[in-house]
Specification:
Chain lengths: 111, 114
């Protein structure tokens, strides 16, 4: 069963605009969530995380929102830059460092 | 600070053989986790080691095993290789185990089984 879902396989955004990547989860036992970015031939790079007791966390151009009642989180990138083009994974954790990853969303930022 | 180092980067093996992959974590990190990435299944958790003890294990057969040394370096072993074991194997290190401590990934070992 897919406990973490990223329903959009891809997203295309104009440079300077906002990118919104979405993620849904089913397991209410998850107590923290993370977003990773991945370029081809490289490992995932940590972007930002959020604890289940918060509903928002910001770090520069990146903001993650968590809606626990809807079991939904989103990553906002403002403004989007061409270098942001990559695959974005959301991940959820609850015990140790066992993370459950979504399938990823390919973000293309057009200049 | 050096990142997570995985060796080798690429590996080609034949069905039935065994393979050992190596991971050196970021200095000071005591937790090392292993993940498998395939096009069909995405990123899946294999196991986590913390202070030389296996802390957590994913849903993989016993052919997949690992260990961690006193310097936090880790190895994973896959015995009796099958074609379906072809994947990118990623190692990640973290300061702590759990609590939202972010995992920092290496660039992976690409294993091809023929």
């Amino acid at each position: 069963d897919q406990q973490v879902k990223q329903n959009s396989p891809s997203l295309s955004v104009q440079e300077g605009r906002i990118s919104i990547l979405n993620c849904d989860y089913t397991n209410s036992m998850f107590d923290y969530f993370l977003w990773y970015k991945k370029y081809p031939a490289e490992g995932p790079t940590f972007l930002i995380s959020i604890s289940s007791i918060k509903d928002k966390n910001e770090d520069g151009r990146f903001t993650v929102f968590l809606n626990k009642s809807a079991k939904h989180l989103s990553l906002h990138i403002v403004p989007s830059q061409p270098g942001d083009s990559a695959v974005y994974f959301c991940a959820a954790g609850g015990y140790g460092n066992k993370l459950v990853f979504g399938a990823g969303t390919i973000l293309r930022v057009k200049s | 600070k050096a990142g997570v180092t995985q060796t080798p980067r690429y590996l080609i093996k034949t069905r039935g053989q065994q393979v050992t992959l190596s991971c050196s974590p970021i200095s000071g990190h005591r937790s090392v986790s292993w993940y498998q990435q395939t096009p069909g299944q995405g990123l899946q958790f294999l196991f986590e080691y913390f202070s030389e003890t296996q802390r957590n294990k994913g849903n993989f057969p016993g052919r997949f095993s690992g260990r961690q040394f006193s310097n936090s370096r880790s190895e994973m072993n896959v015995s009796t290789l099958e074609l379906g074991d072809s994947a990118l194997y990623l190692c990640a290190s973290s300061l702590a185990s759990g609590g939202g401590s972010p995992l920092h990934f290496g660039n992976g070992t690409r294993l091809t089984v023929t």
